[in-house]
Amino acid sequence: MNRTITTIAAAAILATATLSLPGQAAEPAPAPAPGPKASTTKDKAISGEPILMGVRASSSPVSYKDGNTYIGLAVDLCTRAIEDMKKSYPKANFKFVEVTSSTRIDMLKEGKIDLECGSTTNSASRRKEVNFSVPYYIASVKAVKLKSNTAVRTLDDIGPDSTVIFTDKTTTADGLGKFNPNFRVKSTQKVFKLMKGKDHQDSFDLLTAGKGDIFANDDILLKGLIERSKDPSKYEFLPENFSLEPYAVMTRKDDEFMTTAVSKTITKLMLSGEFDNYYTSWFLEAIPPFNKSLKIPMSPLLREYVRMPTRIVGN
């Protein structure tokens, strides 16, 4: 019995010594159990968990807030895509989540939204981070000013005492520089001041308050902001047209399910002729809240996309 006790004691001492040998690494702790896997949009469509639809507050007439809801061409197209999805996934539904130009891409990548139905340009730099559907509108960049500002008549009048307003994290600044070399040189040399609004309405409010000389943005968004203002007659467009901006629904880079679903719906609407009805209702007929028509006919370039829908766009 003494021998047994001695043997057990020796084994215990040996185990203790082994654990405390200098330079010996301790046994690694067991890896924690993996957390629940984030739901993909397909998972959500199957289970009925709401698909998070990113929308804008002030991108009239494609995505904007009217009362307690969100409306616009892009919102209609995304809503239609979810309706089409219900044919295969009856529980599919969605929930609006408001985003801005500054937050949209990060919120999409972080899973805070599953698609963005706003005024987002499909650009080469963005395609490195996200996916895009078939384009649904081709905008052109223009600049607007207060009519009372007689010192600025064209973009060439922007000088050392001028302030140019942009919306944060948009492609507008690049567009102006590409199509106007003189402006690009001034921008590079920081000849004029640059002021950024947090969203399109904020940028427009800065112009209205006289904080800047011009506000440069996509033509359709500027027209929507002007028509929603208290006095549309106060504003005037500069004559120049700048870059072309193909708007598309934005999805996550790895989410081919949602990208395909939205593109399939837009393509079906374009080829059937039904897209023309959507376009007419938002660009040629009176729209809320000002009950006026923007009177913007479909451009020849967009007409070609409608005739032959494709996700391929120029850079």
Automatic annotation (TrEMBL):
Keywords: Signal, Transport
Cleavable signal peptide: 1-25
GO CC, alphabetical: extracellular region; outer membrane-bounded periplasmic space
SUPFAM superfamilies: Periplasmic binding protein-like II (SSF53850)
Stretches the record annotates as Disordered: 24-43
Family the entry assigns: Belongs to the bacterial solute-binding protein 3 family.
InterPro entries in the cross-refs: Bact_solute-bind_prot3, Solute-binding_3/MltF_N
Keyword Signal listed: yes
Biological process terms in GO annotation: amino acid transport
CDD domains per record: PBP2_GltI_DEBP
Chain ranges of the Solute-binding protein family 3/N-terminal domain: 50-286
SMART domains: PBPb
This protein's name: Amino acid ABC transporter substrate-binding protein
